[in-house]
Amino acid sequence: MPYDPTSQSNLNEIKTNHIHLDLTVDFNTKVLSGNAELDIEAIADQVSYIVLDTSHIDIRSVSTAEKMLNFELGSRNEKYGSALIINLGKALEKGNKTKVIIEYATTQYCSACQWLEPSQTVGKKYPYLFTQCQAIHARSLLPCQDSPSIKLTYSANITTPLRAVMSAVLIGEEKCHQSESSTIAAAITTYKFEQKQRIPSYLIALAVGNLEGREIGPRSMVWTEPEVLEAAAWEFIDTEEFIRTGETLLTPYSWGRYDLLVLPASFPYGGMENPCLTFVTPSLLAGDRSLVDVVAHEIAHSWTGNLVTTENWEHFWLNEGFTVFVERKIIGRMKGKEHSEFSAILGHKALQESVELYGSSHPFTALCPCLRGEDPDDAFSRVPYEKGFNLLYYLEKHLGGPEVFEPYLRAHVRQFAGQSINTNDWKAFLYSFMEGNFGQEKVDLLNKVNWDAWLSGTGMPPDDNMFDDTLARACTSLSKKWDESRHVAQPVTAEKTGFSPVDIKTFSSTQTVVFLEKVGELEPLSHEHLDLMDRLYQLTLVKNSEIRLRWHLLCLKANYKKIYPEVVQFASTMGRMKFARPLLRSLHRAKDGAELARETFLKHKSFYHPIAATMIAKDLGLTK
Ligand SMILES: CC/C=C\C/C=C\C[C@@H](O)/C=C/C=C/C=C\[C@@H](O)CCCC(=O)O
Ligand SMILES: [Zn+2]
Where is the Peptidase M1 leukotriene A4 hydrolase/aminopeptidase C-terminal domain (predicted)? Predict the structure, then answer.
């Protein structure tokens, strides 16, 4: 029986096999309205109610093909929304099926949807809508069993004046009539989609805007606003190689298409693995392909997360830890092992930061936290990603290396493809695979693993992995030199310290990131030192978002006020939470920065996606 503490649906009585959406997009009222038709199957006897998750959606009617059904919306749970309780008027026996048709409309409070004004897009001419359903926001886009334990196929007809794209395959489009909107002089079109593979509700995704697509590979297209199409097509040209490398490592890619959608800057994450159409932040468009590891990550989700899915958010590491592990395998094969190890070092630092932020005994630093009564967005951090990765990395080494572990990884995907699993399922198969293929010797090794500390313990992992630090050494050494340059008498100059632009000339952008992080671990440098560093390395002018973030954080830690306007500019034009949240949090902590951080957020609140706005408001102590 599936268990999911973050869903109010009667998961033990019914499952949804298919959803068909018939929705109209109204940019004037910022409302999606129409029908959701759910194909439901009883998985127990005597089922007379269907309970679905909803959040802030306006339910207008519920019916079957034959009759109207009585329904009631339960009182709102602040975190999980309002249960929609549908009285079937008869009892279903196990295996019986029924179709319910729910007429509904979204409201301004639906947290999955961000409606952008034309001014908030790159082109500034057309409005834009996009959704983000992970973890539990699908219930604000449609009434559904909003739990990753339920996997269903879906189809959709989306009627809109601008192009629609979805986490599905486009199977047709039909022109209806000319738009009557004063701003959008386009034909109203119905775009028809089909997702034939079973997916959890959090992977249902929609975007509508002035979108153009360009082929970047035999099964891939990049979609975005025309103004950024060229740059996006150039940046993501390695997409097919990532997919092929994933196929060599695991199993054939099973989703047909792999397209990318580059969203406006308010997209709250680096990437979201929506099947057939990964959503990515425009902050990846560095102009040098240096940030495309995120695409390798999203492609890796095609196997881990999208085929093999966590049963509930307490086992999120099964999605993310596995995906980071596969992502780094892909990078290792394509660019060399020193690059994947370097990424692991960077990841380890991110894990330390997450643990420090929560506190090392906080329950959310456990690999499998208890989420009963919790909002998954509050539990989100690098922990499931990096502690999960570290567990798999540790197991690989402990069990005998890639010769043993890579066949296991493939078998894991084959064994669980199409299913939702929890950590017990994962561990049971790991044991049985190792015993069946390599014998008792591996079982003995598995028995030596400190499972309790790895899976339930809080804080940093119980065992330390050693990563190859070839690419990190130069970064550490340069940061040490800056640390040692503190004794230099004022004025702090290039001549006296011996620093020059050449120091970082051969650094990759990730090496510059690691250098800045290493400096960030030291006692804050003096403002004269920061002035010099900026003059020599031109850091304030860097466009690369990852470098920019670390530079800003370093300066904020030193209360270096010259950076404050830059921080305000960055955080108010970049909605990716990886950037906006630590920037505003650090500004809030910096000398004379608290008011500025709050002001910045409040002034630009409508720029942020609702998920980001909620989290930032909490970070800044504006809400609980
Ligand atoms: C143990 C954690 C428990 C629950 C978390 C479950 C879901 C988290 C929810 O907040 C949604 C997360 C969506 C993530 C999407 C993409 C990320 O991989 C992006 C990572 C950050 C970035 O690079 O911007
Ligand atoms: Zn991921």
Answer: 470-620
DSSP 502: G
CATH number for the domain harbouring residue 501: 1.25.40.320
13 is in which domain, residue-wise?
1-200
Residues 510/517, Cβ–Cβ less than 8 Å: no
Same domain, 567 and 509: yes
Residue 293 in any domain: the answer is yes
Confirm whether residue 577 is marked as ligand binding.
Answer: yes
Closest ligand 1 atom, residue 577 Cα: 24
Residues 219 and 113 in one domain: no
Q: Is 462 inside any structural domain?
A: no
Q: What is the 3-state secondary structure (H, E, C) of 358-422?
A: HCCCCHHHCCCCCCCCCCHHHHCCCHHHHHHHHHHHHHHHHHCCHHHHHHHHHHHHHHHCCCEEC
pTM above 0.95, yes or no: yes
Same-domain pairing of 247 and 150: no
Confirm whether 298 is a catalytic residue: yes
Going from the first residue of the chain to its last (624 residues), give the mean pLDDT of each consecutive group of 10, the final group possibly shorter.
96 98 98 98 98 98 97 98 98 98 98 98 98 98 99 98 98 86 79 98 99 98 98 98 98 98 98 99 97 98 99 99 99 98 98 98 98 98 99 98 98 98 98 98 98 98 98 98 96 98 98 98 97 98 98 98 98 98 98 98 98 98 96
CB atoms within 10 A of CB 118: 16
Selected catalytic residue, list 225, 298, 327, 386: 298
ipTM: 0.97
* Nearest alpha carbon, ligand 1 atom 23: 270
**Known catalytic residue at 80:** no
Instruction: Indicate whether 472 belongs to any domain.
Output: no
